[in-house]
Amino acid sequence: MSRKCTAELSPEEGMEVDCQPEELSKSPYEDRCADLGGVKDMRLEAEAVVNDVLFAVTDMHVSQTLTNALDMAYINVETREGNRYCLELTEAGLRVVGYAFDQVDEGLGSQYHETVYSLLDSLSPGYREAFGNALLQRLERLKQNGQ
Question: Would you identify the family this protein belongs to, as annotated (predicted)?
Answer without folding.
Answer: Belongs to the GSKIP family.
